[in-house]
Write a structure and sequence with these properties.
heterodimer, A: 93 residues, mainly alpha, 0% strand, B: 289 residues, 13 helices
């Protein structure tokens, strides 16, 4: 489970630090991997299958997130012509 | 650096001797959580600090001198300490060697993925992370989940990522500002603060995981969950969690529709041109040459 925590932390760093939006979304997938490892490990410790079932739903959410996130990335790339997340710095709500 | 690693190792051996003197096996760790747990927590913090320094040096920067040797040293130190910690925790598990190797692969792949300046190579390192995670899941008895992980991630999601990477970097390949366009890949944003944030977070999570008293690892129970894993997981999903499965299906459908709606190219079509045609003819007739 420490492995899961470390992978999750690396994913957080990658998401915050990298400026390429594709790499940022890959880092969120890394975070999902960490959570998945932790879920299965805890299910193993408790001796039931609910950790694995939750892991399956985490996979579903990861797939959904990848699809939507990449759609947004494609749209933003068409708007700006670059994948730099800093180019959206001037965005005001 | 090496002396620090050695002191950590000696600390580890010391506490190991203390643990053996106390007559405790690993299962008794929950019973007396004072000295040993403290050592483990500090070890986790030390691993996090070493890894933070390594990742900070590895993140792409504007003017990058050759820090590769330092990076390798940091990675080796953190890997060694990590091996010690894992050995302490997973010590008497039968397959802990394979587990340690796989987790090293996973963490190394993840670190290189977020530090590599090219997105395509990041995706390749991501495959390494996925494969080693799937192998870890199979080791843990979750063979169905491991297979699904390989199929979904390495098959579907990664192909989508590769597709988007190719799609969005194709146009910059042939132009003159190829190097300018990839500047944002070479310099990262606020490397120090992000590394501090991420590793403080993971050190806190790791510390809490170490401190909490988990139920002790029961090999017989684990073997029971590993036996007929796919069958029993399917039964659980279809009986107790049927509503969740349906919800997941609906969620996937909604996400598919939403992704198409977001990423669709908006073609401006002329209303008058459309209505001028007779009904049923629009789209079928080509304009005459």
């Amino acid at each position: 489970m420490l492995v899961g925590a470390l992978i999750f932390g690396l994913g957080v760093i990658g998401f915050l630090a990298r400026r390429n939006m594709i790499v940022m979304f890959l880092s969120t997938e890394i975070m999902f991997q960490g959570v998945l490892v932790n879920l299965v490990g805890m299910g193993l410790l408790h001796g039931n299958l609910q950790g694995q079932a939750m892991g399956l739903f985490v996979l579903v959410i990861a797939a959904v997130e990848a699809g939507l996130g990449l759609a947004i990335v494609v749209m933003m790339y068409r708007r700006r012509g670059t994948l730099d997340a800093e180019s959206w710095r001037t965005m005001r709500g | 650096m090496k002396s620090r690693g050695r002191t950590r190792g000696s600390l580890d051996i010391e506490s190991d001797a203390h643990r053996r003197a106390a007559g405790g096996r690993r299962a008794d760790r929950t019973a007396e959580p004072t000295a040993l747990t403290d050592t483990l927590v500090y070890l986790a913090y030390a691993v996090a600090a070493a890894g933070a320094a390594g990742v900070y040096l590895g993140l792409p920067r504007e003017s990058k001198p050759d820090r590769r040797g330092l990076l390798v040293i940091m990675a080796a130190v953190s890997a060694g300490v990590f091996c010690l910690v894992m050995h302490r925790i997973m010590g008497d598990a039968a397959n802990h060697v394979a587990f340690v190797v796989l987790s090293l692969f996973a963490i190394g792949g993840a670190a290189r993925m977020i530090t590599h300046p090219k997105p395509v190579y990041s995706a390749v390192y991501f495959i390494i992370v996925i494969l080693s995670t799937a192998a870890m899941l199979v080791l843990a008895g979750a063979e169905f989940l491991g297979l699904v992980l390989v199929a979904v991630y390495a098959g579907a999601i990664l192909v989508t990522y590769a597709f988007v990477i190719m799609l969005s970097q194709q146009s910059t390949m042939h132009s003159d500002h190829f190097r300018n366009a990839l500047d944002y890949d070479r310099s990262s944003r606020e490397p120090a603060w992000t590394v501090i944030a991420g590793f403080v977070l993971s050190a806190t999570i790791a510390g809490m995981i170490v401190q909490r008293s988990w139920p002790s690892f029961d090999a017989a129970r684990a073997a029971k969950t590993a036996e007929h894993n796919t069958l029993r997981l399917g039964e659980l999903l279809m009986t107790d969690m049927a509503v969740s499965v349906e919800l997941a299906a609906v969620l996937l459908l909604v996400a598919m529709v939403g992704a198409i709606a977001i990423a669709r190219k908006r073609i401006p079509h002329d209303e008058t041109f459309e209505t001028r045609r007779p009904l049923g003819e629009s789209g079928r007739t080509a304009p005459p040459y």
